[in-house]
């Protein structure tokens, strides 16, 4: 077998490689953890994925409107998203974005509220409301997940359905090294949360594909407008991500200087270290 450069923790995880809507009977090529793989639909319209170098079939699962695979022996299940099962929610596949940076960098950016007023100006934030209030970090599921709770930020347009500025409550969830979710105040029903999932496909150590999927309580907005809104947000992030150096996420203490607003980033880096994750990092 050709040597695989990823660590064992990552090899045993499930990774998204495609939205289900992109599956075709003609095989599609992609990369996962430095490996060349193909995926698609077989003659019976069942999804498949193959490691090209080893000529072996890979395990696949269809979940959260995406195709998932694992290069090693799966150590657990794909993270559950309870809200995805609620019948009044809309599932919004926001497409696929190739980003010239590591998967951990993309996750860390997703967890950061401090950049809202400066990168997503007049959408997710605006001056002078730039302060990130103190929030709580929690480990859940016996340390398998890390959460940030009690997060609040004033947003001029928290979602497409928002008609005015809103003091938005956030919950951040890291459910896997490259699987993260955001639960945020739903403008249509403030007692519930909209859910935005970001599944990051680590193609190589310094190049990734991001797969954002939303589970929304919004029966008014056109699907195309919802997709455009989220794509606008992510494309603004991509500019920042591709200019960060180093592209791999530093895990050693003191490599980058955090502030109080970076507590979730610090927790995520520590959590990766504790789990033995080194892929896409400078550990």
UniProtKB/TrEMBL annotation:
<dbReference type="InterPro" id="IPR044043">
    <property type="entry name" value="VanA_C_cat"/>
</dbReference>
<dbReference type="GO" id="GO:0032259">
    <property type="term" value="P:methylation"/>
</dbReference>
<keyword id="KW-0560">Oxidoreductase</keyword>
<dbReference type="GO" id="GO:0008168">
    <property type="term" value="F:methyltransferase activity"/>
</dbReference>
<dbReference type="Pfam" id="PF19112">
    <property type="entry name" value="VanA_C"/>
</dbReference>
<dbReference type="InterPro" id="IPR050584">
    <property type="entry name" value="Cholesterol_7-desaturase"/>
</dbReference>
<feature type="domain" description="Vanillate O-demethylase oxygenase-like C-terminal catalytic">
    <location>
        <begin position="100"/>
        <end position="273"/>
    </location>
</feature>
<dbReference type="GO" id="GO:0016491">
    <property type="term" value="F:oxidoreductase activity"/>
</dbReference>
<protein>
    <submittedName>
        <fullName>Methylxanthine N7-demethylase NdmC</fullName>
        <ecNumber>1.14.13.128</ecNumber>
    </submittedName>
</protein>
């Amino acid at each position: 077998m050709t040597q695989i450069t990823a660590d064992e923790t990552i090899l045993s995880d499930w990774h998204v490689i495609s939205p289900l809507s992109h599956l075709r009977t003609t095989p599609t090529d992609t990369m996962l953890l430095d490996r060349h793989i193909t995926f698609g639909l077989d003659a019976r319209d069942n999804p498949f994925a193959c490691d090209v170098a080893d000529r072996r079939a890979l395990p696949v699962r269809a979940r959260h409107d995406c195709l998932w695979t694992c290069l090693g022996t799966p150590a657990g299940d794909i993270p559950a998203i309870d809200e995805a099962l609620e019948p009044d929610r809309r599932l919004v596949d926001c497409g696929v974005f190739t980003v010239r940076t590591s998967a951990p960098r993309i996750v860390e950016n997703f967890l950061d509220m401090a950049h809202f007023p400066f990168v997503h100006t007049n959408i997710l934030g605006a001056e002078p409301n730039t302060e990130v209030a103190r929030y709580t970090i929690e480990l859940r599921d016996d340390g398998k997940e890390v959460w940030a709770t009690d997060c609040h930020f004033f947003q001029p347009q928290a979602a497409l359905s928002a008609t005015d500025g809103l003091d938005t409550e956030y919950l951040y969830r890291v459910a896997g090294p490259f699987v993260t979710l955001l639960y945020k105040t739903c403008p249509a029903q403030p007692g519930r949360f909209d859910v935005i999932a970001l599944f990051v496909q680590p193609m190589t150590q310094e190049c990734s594909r991001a797969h954002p999927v939303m589970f929304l309580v919004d029966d008014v907005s056109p699907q195309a407008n919802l997709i455009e809104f989220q794509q606008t947000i992510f494309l603004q992030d991509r500019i920042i991500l591709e200019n960060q150096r180093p592209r791999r996420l530093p895990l050693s203490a003191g490599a980058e200087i955090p502030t109080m607003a970076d507590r979730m980033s610090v927790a995520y880096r520590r959590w990766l270290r504790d789990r033995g994750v080194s892929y896409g990092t400078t550990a």
